[in-house]
Specification:
Structural class: alpha/beta
Number of strands: 4
Largest sheet: 4 strands, mixed
Helix content: 25-40%
Strand content: 15-25%
Order of helices and strands: EHEEEH
Number of domains: 1
Number of helices: 2
């Protein structure tokens, strides 16, 4: 997993939100029902001040999942958006 941030500082609320995002991502990975369609998975997590909503992009080879998440605002239903993003590239469904 690679973690990137466009701002090197954050307050406790930003950090808490980041940890909740990360917890949802890791729960997708540890769920025995979910398998990446490529057989491999590298996660790039981008915490961004500019992002307004959660997005999950999957590389054409299906090996890299890039999760971009806003760090200053909490979007509605962000956990289901992360799960649906991972489902798109899954050999099995969550």
């Amino acid at each position: 997993m690679t973690i990137k941030a466009d701002s090197p500082t954050c307050d406790s609320m930003n950090f808490d939100l980041f940890l909740r995002y990360l917890g949802t991502v890791t729960s997708c990975l540890t769920n025995d029902e979910w398998k990446p369609s490529s057989g491999q998975c590298h996660i790039v997590f981008v915490a961004s001040k500019a992002a307004k909503d959660i997005s999950v992009a999957i590389s054409p080879d299906g090996k890299t999942y890039t999760v971009t998440a806003p760090i200053e605002v909490e979007p509605n239903e962000w956990d289901s958006k992360i799960k649906k993003g991972f489902q798109r590239g899954s050999a099995n469904k969550l």
